[in-house]
Write a structure and sequence with these properties.
By secondary structure, this protein is an all-alpha fold. It has two helices and no strands.
Amino acid sequence: MGDDLQANVSMYKLQLQQVEDSLTLDPENEDLLKLKTDLQMRVKLLSVKSSTTQAV
């Protein structure tokens, strides 16, 4: 299960980087800004979950 969490975190980090790259071209794009916030939250939540899972 830990490997799945790590894979998801990696995927979301990659997507976040792509969104941030797109925001350099269009910094006022509300859809991209919302997506960035959503991805940051997912990375944070999954990282915490991964840490908790590893500690058990």
